[in-house]
Design brief:
The structure is a homodimer. By secondary structure, chain A is an alpha/beta fold. The first copy, chain A, is about 50% helix and about 15% strand. Chains A and B meet through helix 3, helix 6, helix 7, helix 11 and helix 12 of A and helix 3, helix 6, helix 7, helix 11 and helix 12 of B.
């Protein structure tokens, strides 16, 4: 049995870039351990240096392959790259990592790459909170670029991809082109649109459709300082990645030095605070209500009240005189 | 434009079995409309008559086909059957219903069958609450059997399938048999195990594996009054459905008249109260914090505090002197 390393000690080792400490502290953030909070709070002060890139797209859009190739390219340029993959099927994450990440075998022995899969369920809806804590940990640990990869199904996943410095939406030809990004509400969140699999002959159609849709729209109206590019890439031939890296770098520079970029950082901070606060609130309620709930449940079974009024009463009784 | 029908009026029409009113009130429950709460609370008093069956299994296990066939059989026996399908890919629910439910075309013109897909995201984690409200609405509307179908990925989905009178776990041959139910933590929640696709030659192996695993286990220790059956069915040949319906009926009778059945109803009521209370709490917080959050977000961006301490402060400031 290895000893329990206090989170404060882990945090110190995170700052030295120790991968073991990074992995353990992310696990504690994911589990929502109270003991880890002071350490995470401390690391926040050291974070804010990395470029955080959210990458999303529907299943089959080629996200994971793009992320692998992009990471390898950035690595060649000397950057340390962290990848956080949000896995929607939590109980299967073991299998899913294997399936999804098999292409990443080239990367996994490189200490300048860190790949991590996060569960999406449980932990009191704390996925967004935990993901943002994990970003801070990697950031404080010296990772230059941190990619948050989410599958673009589900509001939570799309929101997390959006809560980054630069959001990339990946579309692929042949998936019912014009509608895939719209359907998930992903069209308007993209700072950069990428069409993957551009070695295929039908990719041009997807590129044209996307460009047309963007010119139609007030979609980019909240980006006064940035023209959303639509880039074609092929992970197979390697084409388009120079342009993608260039677009990511340019977008970051714009975001750092404009008022619209600052407004976005404030919006992300608000999202993060809301998620963290919700998490704290639900934890406190779970603690405060645990002894009272069985009695209330008996009353509900006996139909001595309805679910709404009894839940209301349970909240009041749990917090009593105290504020939550 | 049709006029806005008050929820109280809809509730009255639900009790008369009007499908239009049922559909609208479920939508309001799903949206978490405050205006609908008194009506939903009122319907709770009229619910509790239906047999609620949770059916879950991994993707590809043949759940939807089983549910369709089961519904048709129960219908032949004279029961009114409601089906609530929990769809994990909310933004695609349109497409998903179509894909999943195409086999149900025989059923959709029968007024004794009601099929409804629920979104899994958004609404402040209110999926469980909304689903249980929908069950009450169908129950009060005269549906005799209500099937909650969830895909067995994700803790929330499995929990909802469990929060029913009788939980059925579906496994299929050829999916990596022995492990599929275990992986998702579904093995122990089953009151009835079903192996689908028993027209296939490899189904026997799945049946044997499952039976063996059940005899091994303390898995059924919390079911003193019930021996968990493992049934083979084929929606293709129709075999096994008589046995399944018999098992469901027997399980219900046992659940209604034993102490273990009562304990389960209390546990489900506790789960429901917790979910409803969490929902209320998050709504109140969202309301109370909305004006304060931008200021706190500015402070977080300026690093005048960390996410945890600022979230804590935001909760305190939102609820002020008031209890939540």
């Amino acid at each position: 049995m290895s000893r329990y390393v206090p989170s404060a000690e882990l945090a110190g080792r995170v700052v030295n870039g120790e991968v073991y400490a990074i992995a353990r502290l992310i696990s504690r953030a994911e589990a929502g351990l109270t003991e880890a909070r002071a350490a995470l709070a401390g690391l926040y002060a050291r974070a804010g240096r990395a470029h955080v890139i959210g990458i999303t797209g529907v299943p089959g859009s080629g996200k994971s392959t793009l992320v692998s190739t992009l990471a390898a390219r950035l690595r060649t340029g000397g950057s340390k790259v962290g990848i956080i993959a949000i896995d929607p099927s939590s109980p299967y994450s073991g299998g899913s990592i294997l399936g999804d990440r098999i292409r990443m075998t080239d990367l996994v022995n490189d200490p300048g790459i860190y790949i991590r899969s996060m569960a999406t369920r449980g932990a009191m809806g704390g996925m967004a909170r935990a993901t943002m804590d994990a970003v801070d940990i990697l950031d404080a640990g010296g990772f230059d670029t941190i990619v948050i990869e989410t599958v673009g199904v589900g509001q939570d996943e799309v929101e997390i991809a959006r809560a980054s410095d630069t959001t990339v939406v990946v579309s692929a030809p042949g998936l019912g082109d014009e509608i895939q990004a719209i359907k998930a509400g992903m069209l308007e969140i993209a700072d950069v649109h990428v069409v993957s699999k551009c070695d295929r002959s039908d990719a041009n159609r997807t590129l044209t459709d996307l460009k047309q849709m963007l010119t139609l729209g007030a979609l980019t109206a909240d980006r006064p300082d940035w023209q959303v590019p639509v880039l074609g890439i092929s992970s197979y031939t390697g084409s388009g990645f120079d342009e993608l890296i260039d677009a990511l770098t340019r977008h970051r520079a714009v975001a750092l030095h404009t008022e619209s970029g600052r407004r976005r950082r404030v919006a992300i901070a608000g999202f993060r605070l809301a998620k963290t606060a919700e998490n704290l609130l639900l934890e406190r309620f779970a603690r405060a209500s645990s002894e009272l709930t069985p009695d209330f449940a008996e009353r509900l079974v006996r139909h001595e009240g309805d679910p709404y009024s009894l839940a209301n009463e349970l909240v009041a009784a749990s917090f009593g005189k105290e504020d939550p």
